[in-house]
Amino acid sequence: MMQFPARSENEALARVCAAAFVTPLNPTIADITDIKTAISEAVTNAIIHGYDGADMDEPMVHMHLEMRDRRIFVEIRDRGRGIEDIERAREPLFTSKPEQERSGMGFTVMEEFMDSLDIISISGEGTTIKMTKKLG
């Protein structure tokens, strides 16, 4: 488990840590790229959407990684605003930030690159993204 301030530059930190974490399993470059991309999307969502307008001194993103039987379990959690309508947020091209030229493809990318995606969100309490990927 690691936590880091919800700043855009820490998205790269999350990607590098995830890549290093899976290295002992000798993953393919494609597997590493898929995991890093999905984590990037989840962390970016926490930073951009989860904490937007939140009145907090130092909002944090929490990342938990686990390995079992060549399967990677990823959990990205924030304690921000939460998602009002998860099904709508999962729709390709839907964005709550069109003025920031957001593509609205974050959850679609996570679903495409990982084997499973679960979104747990409570308004005013935050969002947890759980993803799994079987390697090789």
Write the layout of secondary structure elements.
Blueprint (H helix, E strand, L loop, with lengths): L1 E4 L4 H13 L6 H22 L9 E9 L2 E8 L7 H4 L16 H8 L2 E7 L3 E9 L2
Antiparallel strand pairs: 1-2, 2-3, 3-5, 4-5
Helix pairs in contact: 1-2, 2-4
Protein architecture, described:
With 136 residues, this protein is of the alpha+beta class. The protein has a single domain, classed as Heat Shock Protein 90. It has helices at residues 10-22, 29-50, 86-89, 106-113, and strands at 2-5, 60-68, 71-78, 116-122, 126-134. A five-stranded antiparallel beta sheet has the order 1-2-3-5-4, with helices on one face. Strand 4 (116-122) and strand 5 (126-134) form a beta hairpin. Helix 1 runs antiparallel to helix 2. The longest helix is centred in the N-terminal third of the chain and has 22 residues, at 29-50. The chain starts with a strand and ends with a strand. The mean pLDDT is 90.
Main-sheet strand order equals: 1-2-3-5-4
Structural shape: globular
User: In CATH's first tier, which class applies?
Assistant: Alpha Beta
Ends: how far apart?
24 Å
Task: Sum this structure up briefly.
This protein has 4 helices and 5 strands.
List keywords for this structure.
Heat Shock Protein 90, alpha+beta, 35% helix, 4 helices, 5-stranded antiparallel beta sheet, 136 residues
